[in-house]
């Protein structure tokens, strides 16, 4: 289920919990409507409010850290490929096949990579082969002197870093927000909304407040889930590093 589906399900659960309690309160047996029962429900609800605030803070922090980490790695990923291209240029015309393979890989990333609808190009075997081709064409070069050897080794180091960062981004592309934590959070929210509906006045203002509150909380959780997966949805990592990379290697 996608982020939108999860948000809709949460909205329905919260609305049903609050409006269901609101509608059924008058039908409860008398001993379930005593002040002692109401006071106990409110105390338990306050406990859930505190715990929910803590868990919500953890989920926001987790999603924020994931987003910032991926954004930083995208910048490093692009920078390493720019440095690789510059090193290959300094080596000389012998590296043109390797530079062409790098250009083909970057073009593939721009079309289908981390900024597209799918996660990073991990599942794209064509992109992986293009990146491997850069290393194969570097291995085919035999440096004639110490200066060229140093440049060749520097290019290999940059390529290795590109490969490492690619796999790091692959691992981060699915997000790391624990699903059990989200389930617990939603369960507590349902309990809170149910307690709010208990003994609440039955009028249009109360019903509207419950519905709007459920919608806003569902939207907030949707944004948290979307931020935890920065390659899709309205909140995405900036395309600027890859755009700069594509412009640099064309010159």
Describe the structure concisely for a colleague.
The protein is an all-alpha fold and 251 residues long. Helix content is 76%, strand content 0%.
How many runs of DSSP E, i.e. beta strands? 0
Tertiary shape = rod-shaped
Series of H and E elements: HHHHHHHH
Approximately how much beta-strand content do the residues carry? Answer: under 5%
Strand count, sense and closure of the main sheet?
Answer: none
User: Helicity range of the residues?
Assistant: over 70%
What class, by secondary structure content?
A: mainly alpha
How confident is the prediction overall: mean pLDDT? 85
Task: Record keyword descriptors for this entry.
251 residues, 76% helix, 0% strand, mainly alpha, single chain
What do these coordinates show?
The structure is a single chain. By secondary structure, the chain is mainly alpha-helical. Helix content is 76%, strand content 0%. The chain has eight helices and no strands. It has helices spanning 3-24, 35-91, 96-112, 125-139, 146-172, 179-197, 204-227, 240-250. Helix 2 (35-91) packs antiparallel against helix 6 and helix 2 (35-91) runs parallel beside helix 7 (204-227). The longest helix has 57 residues, at 35-91. It is rod-shaped and about 95 Å long. 32% of the residues are buried.
């Amino acid at each position: 289920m996608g982020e939108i589906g999860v948000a809709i399900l949460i909205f329905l659960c919260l609305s049903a919990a609050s409006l269901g309690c609101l509608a059924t309160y008058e039908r409860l047996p008398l001993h379930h409507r005593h002040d002692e029962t109401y006071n106990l429900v409110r105390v338990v609800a306050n406990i859930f409010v505190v715990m929910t605030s803590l868990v919500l803070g953890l989920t926001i922090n987790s999603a924020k850290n994931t987003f910032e980490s991926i954004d930083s790695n995208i910048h490093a990923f692009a920078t390493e490929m720019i440095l690789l291209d510059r090193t290959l240029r300094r080596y000389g015309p012998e590296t043109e096949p390797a530079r062409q393979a790098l250009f083909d890989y970057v073009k593939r990333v721009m079309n289908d990579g981390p900024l597209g609808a799918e996660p990073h190009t991990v599942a794209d075997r064509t992109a992986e082969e293009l990146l491997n081709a850069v290393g194969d064409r570097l291995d085919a070069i035999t440096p004639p002197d110490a200066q060229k050897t140093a440049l060749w080794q520097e290019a290999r180091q940059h390529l290795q870093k590109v490969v490492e960062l690619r796999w790091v981004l692959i691992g981060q592309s699915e997000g790391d927000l624990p699903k059990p934590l989200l389930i617990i959070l939603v369960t507590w929210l349902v309990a809170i909304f149910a307690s709010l509906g208990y003994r609440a006045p039955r009028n249009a203002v109360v019903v509207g407040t419950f519905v709007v509150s459920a919608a806003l909380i569902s939207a907030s959780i949707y944004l948290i889930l979307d931020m935890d997966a920065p390659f899709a949805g309205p909140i995405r990592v900036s395309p600027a590093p890859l755009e700069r990379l594509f412009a640099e290697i064309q010159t």
